[in-house]
Amino acid sequence: MEVKLWNDKREREMYDNFAELYAIIKATERLEKAYVRDIISPQEYELECQKLIAHFKTLASTLKDTVPSIERFADTYRMECPAAINRLVVSGVPATVEHRATAAAAASTSAAIVAECVQNFITAMDSLKLNMVAVDQVHPLLSDLYASLNKLTILPPDFEGKIKMKEWIARLSKMGAADELTEQQARQLHFDLESSYNSFMAALPNAGT
After folding, report:
1. Residues 6 or more apart whose Cβ sits within 8 Å of residue 142
2. Rounded mean pLDDT, 140-145
3. Which long-range contacts (CB under 8 A, 24 or more apart) does 172-177 make?
């Protein structure tokens, strides 16, 4: 005896859509696992993932009244597809696109910090040229430079500029605010700044291109 799951054409269409949604979620879970295990190339993964996401969005829109929660749908049918739910519902874009966005954001942040470091180097050197040698004038400039250098993750902990700025800041901290650097100290500090700046520029990626 044949058992019908639906009573009319509308119900049949609903169950067909349920089956398609189920298949998309399962396929996405398999695709995510294949990508993580390097079974599929990033290019192939991205193409297939974009197709699945597009199909999912269309179907989810069609089923929004019948299936208000995809997570609940997955729980109801005991699908256990966390990677697929994350990709389809939470992220909405392939992992490769997410990674590119993250890398671009990091590069943008690094570029801003590099610009900040360059500005702080030049400001400190120009201030010495203008004979701004009082401790309360020099100390804030070196502190800003040291802080910006520490924000740049591409520089090693033992980077020359970090070490020299730290030494100078410690030296100035022992002096009074109104004290001034001697001509010899100012000359040495300017030399250290210039040397550190050149090392900084050489340490940047593609500095020689």
Report:
1. 124, 165, 168, 169, 172
2. 93
3. 172/135, 172/138, 172/139, 172/142, 173/139, 175/135, 176/135, 177/134, 177/135, 177/136
Beta bridge partners of 8: none
Provide the percentage of residues in the chain whose pLDDT is more than 90: 63
Token pair 């993964």 in the structure block, residue: 45
Would you state the pLDDT for residue 6? 59
- What is the signed CA dihedral for 105, 109, 114, 119, rounded to 10 degrees? 140
Computed on alpha carbons and rounded to an integer, the radius of gyration of the chain in Å comes to 30
Residue (of 134, 141, 120, 123) closest to 181 by Cα position: 134
Q: Would the pTM count as exceeding 0.90?
A: no
Tens of pLDDT, residue by residue over 144-156, are: 999 999 988 888 8
In this structure, what token pair is assigned to residue 34?
Answer: 């294949």
- The neighbour count for residue 54, using CB atoms within 10 Å, is 10
